[in-house]
């Protein structure tokens, strides 16, 4: 009809989210915990991912009532710890009044007694505190504006509790979990055995430069985090995703063939 114009739809608003890259020192160097998502309606269905998920209003309320209000990322850290506990049973927490991270036996007792997964309700009344201080901000990614589902995701690295590294997956959203050396993951990607969501791929690349947990924590604890919103370009070699050099990943383009579309 005359007078009508083709309006470009507004991009979806990115939802705040948080992810933990949990680390431990293995026999051949640094290892990270990776989870396999179930196929179906979940975001990144079937993918290998780090523990994490969307920020919930309860995470914000928990910080307002119990958390460190001076930390601008406190609610996101709570969300990351909560999501990891819900997805694979590993809990970063301390017994009240102690610097000691809760051992696996106590964490298992909490999980057994708290089958509904409402860990924040329990933490608000039980004698333990979430160990948000163990999380170090590592990366910040925003899903491109062209995608229908968008997330504003903060990635944190954290050392695993010394005796609590065995995951117990929920069997619904997460169906498997294992510890992997970052370089082994990259070898599987380049060997055609595995494709990853772009931020997961790039953060594996970034972390592969560290040989140990202590080295990674020392390197990134005081490093500025650059917000990344990838762009897609077409080249003679095919589609590539591009990020700014300032992001500090050592590479700025990755061929689409190595990546999942989610």
Q: What would you say this structure looks like, in words?
A:
- With 262 residues, the protein is of the alpha+beta class.
- Helix content is 26%, strand content 27%.
- It has helices at 57-66, 74-88, 104-113, 119-125, 182-190, 198-207, 213-220, and strands at 15-26, 29-37, 48-49, 52-54, 93-95, 128-130, 136-142, 151-159, 174-180, 227-228, 231-235, 238-242, 253-255.
- Strands 1, 2, 3, 4, 7, 8, 9 and 10 form an eight-stranded mixed β-sheet that branches. A three-stranded antiparallel β-sheet has the order 11-12-13, with no helix packed on it.
- Helix 1 packs across helix 2 (74-88) and helix 5 (182-190) packs across helix 6 (198-207).
* SSE run: EEEEHHEHHEEEEHHHEEEE
Uncertain parts: none
Q: Tell me the structural class.
A: alpha+beta
Q: Beta fraction of the residues? A: 25-35%
Number of helices: 7
Query: What would you report as the Rg, rounded to the nearest angstrom?
Result: 19 Å
Distance between the termini: 37 Å
Please give the share of residues in helix.
25-40%
Structure summary, number of beta strands: 13
> What average pLDDT do the residues reach?
86
Give a quick account of the main beta sheet: strands, pairing sense, barrel closure: 8 strands, mixed
Shape: globular
């Amino acid at each position: 009809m005359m007078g009508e114009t083709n309006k470009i739809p507004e991009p979806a608003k990115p939802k705040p989210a948080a992810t933990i890259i949990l680390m431990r020192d293995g026999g051949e160097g640094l290892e990270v915990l990776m989870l396999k998502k179930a196929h179906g309606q979940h975001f990144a269905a079937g993918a290998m991912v780090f523990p994490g998920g969307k920020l919930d209003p309860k995470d914000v309320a928990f910080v307002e009532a119990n958390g460190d209000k001076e930390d601008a990322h406190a609610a996101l850290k709570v969300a990351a710890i909560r999501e990891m506990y819900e997805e694979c049973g590993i809990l970063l927490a301390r017994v009240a009044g102690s610097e000691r991270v809760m051992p696996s036996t106590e964490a298992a007792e909490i999980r057994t007694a708290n089958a509904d997964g409402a860990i924040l309700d329990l933490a608000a009344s039980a004698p333990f505190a979430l160990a948000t201080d163990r999380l170090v901000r590592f990366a910040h990614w925003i899903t491109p504006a062209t995608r229908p589902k968008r997330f504003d995701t903060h990635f944190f690295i954290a050392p695993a509790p010394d005796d609590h590294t065995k995951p117990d997956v929920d069997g619904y959203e997460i169906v498997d979990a294992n510890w992997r050396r970052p370089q082994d993951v990259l070898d599987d990607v380049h060997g055609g055995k595995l494709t990853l969501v772009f931020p997961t791929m790039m953060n594996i690349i970034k972390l592969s430069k560290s040989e140990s947990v202590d080295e990674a924590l020392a390197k990134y604890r005081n490093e500025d985090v650059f917000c990344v919103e990838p762009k897609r370009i077409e080249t003679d070699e095919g589609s590539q995703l591009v990020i700014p050099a300032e992001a500090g990943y050592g590479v700025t383009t990755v061929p689409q063939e190595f990546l999942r579309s989610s």
